[in-house]
Each structure stands twice: as C-alpha cells, then as structure tokens.
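Worked example 3. Consider a protein that binds zinc ion.
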Amino acid sequence: MRRQVCLILLFFHWVLPVHAADWKVVQIAGRDYLSMRNIAQFYNLEDVRETDKEVMAKSGVRSLRAIKGSAEFFINNLKFILSYPAEQHDGDLCVSRMDLVKLIEPVMRPSRIKNAPPVETVVLDAGHGGHDNGAAGAYGPEKAFALDVVMRAKALLQGAGLKVVLTRDSDYFVPLDERVRIANRQKNAIFISMHFNHGGEGTGVEAYTLAPRGVPSMMADGPRVSDLVECAGNVRDAENMALATASHAALVVKTRMYDRGLKRARFVVIRDIKIPGVLLEGGFQSSRFDSKMIATPLYRQTLAQAILAAVENYRKAVGSQPANRTLPQRNPDPEPAGRPSKPAPIDPPGSS
Ligand SMILES: [Zn+2]
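Given these inputs, the predicted complex is written out as structure tokens:
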C-alpha cells in the first residue's frame, strides 16, 4: 500500500485561529513541556485519541502523533526525531517546548516563518569526491552516485527556471569549508547536500537539519558544551526545518523507501552556511537492497525528482500568508543542554 504521507498536504497549514490555546507549561527534568492535548488545541486538531502507548491528534488530513517515552514523532504520518522524547506528566503525554517551537511549529505553519528569503538559486552539494570516495558499495562509491543525482537534479531545477550552483561538477575533492564558502556567496538561495549512508543493518532514507542551539546532535554520544554555542546556520532554524521537511517528505513519498526520520545534526556543511540547508541520505550503500536501488539510473532520477519537489514545496510553504497566534514564551534561562515499504518497480543494476 502506498505510504500515507501526504506530500502536498504536509504544508496544508493555513490553520485558522478558532480559539487561542492557553499554554500550560510543565517542567519535566528541568525542561519545559506542553501536553499533546494543549498542542492539539492550538493547531485546531479536534480529534484527540489516546491509547496506553501514544496520543494521536487529527483534523482532516493533518495529524500529530506522539509515542510515550519515544523520540519518534509523526506529523501527517511523516517521521521526525524529537530532540527530547515525549514524556508523561500527570497523566498527559507531553512534548518539549524546544520541539514544539523548533520542529512542530515551522512544519505546521511554515507561512509564519519571518523573513524567509525567496528561492532563486539552489546550491547542490554532491558529497565527497576525488580521494574521498565516501561509503563503499557493491556497485560503486558514494561520491559517484551522489554526483549523478546532483547532475540529474540540476537539469530538472534549471528546467523549472531556477539557477543552480554546484559545489563540485566532477570527481574532485572539495574541502567542507570550501563548500560552505560557495553556499555563503549565494543570495536568495537554499543548500541541498546529497549523500548515501553506510553501517550495520541500516536501510531507508533520512534527512538531517541543523540542531538548534542547546540541543544535542543526534550523531553525538550525548550533550556537549559546544551544543550551547550558536552556529551560523542557527539564524535559519525555522527555514531549515521547513526545507528539511519538504525534502524528507519528497524523499519518502517519491522513493517509497523506509522512513528513518528527519534528524538533527551539526555536520559542517549545514552548520556553517547562512542560507537554509538540508543534508539528504538517499539509502544505504551497505544494504543489499538499498545498494541495488542506488545503482539504478531510475532510482537516482527519482531522487533528483524528489529534490525538485522539495524545492517547489518549500517555496510554496514559506510563501504563504502569516497568522497571528503566538507560541508559549520560553523561560528566562536557556534550554538545558541537556521495515522497508514495498519498493517501487525498478530495473536491476546496469540494465540501462
Ligand atoms: Zn556521505
């Protein structure tokens, strides 16, 4: 069955202010949390269903789903990884204020993002290159597949009237800080980095966006003092999340691969750029199933189409009308640091 993520409607966000919610902030382990019922009320999700494992709040095609004790969180059936797990408090399942402000809000109401620049240019970043092969796979190195996807995406984006800048257009090494410099020279631009994964039994697609200040990277073992330092890219927290959501939704819907979720990290290329950015992982080179897919031109064309859809949906999402209601104000102190779906029909590797 086709995955029920609704790509277009993910940004079906023009939420009417029927009644302003009274925010009831509770403290769990020194951190601000809000109940799912409170959040559902704010976004006018009238149908709230609770089981002993989760809370699902719905209205039409819009939905939020939190799972007790888990960082997995679903918005319109697309998986996000919360910075802090959903926790019980006085019988209510609660989500951290950080996740409400930095994740749920820009996804539910991207049109409220202030001063999001228009998108005229897309910087496409093919991971690795030259002596840096990236992840090895049975059918070729990550660097070659990433570049191929980027060249395909370039053609599609230019066909849609966008200017495209590449951090590399052939098989040569480009240091990470040079990629950042290329991105930061562009105005009215967004940055999309293309990679493939490696490791363990992993399978499926995921996207990374910059962790907000104070939030641990999901790639680190735990909180670090550096989590409290504001990175260049943090000025774009809201746009980053909206772009990453558009990208991750497009990736999941178009490829029909397993949804590993939208995650937070501080990779150099998304940390130091001043334009909205996202890093995509288009499958696992180490997986037998994924690596076969990655090796097919059809799958790589699908990834390129996902990039085009991501750009188009992001532009629509941040271009809409603003709303008025406000999120709960933060406490004075900074936040403490605190199975594959059915594959699309595809040719075997090397058949075209
Ligand atoms: Zn990579």
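Take a moment to read the result before moving on. The chain has nine helices and 15 strands. Residues 127-128, 134, 142, 195 surround zinc ion (CB under 6 Å).
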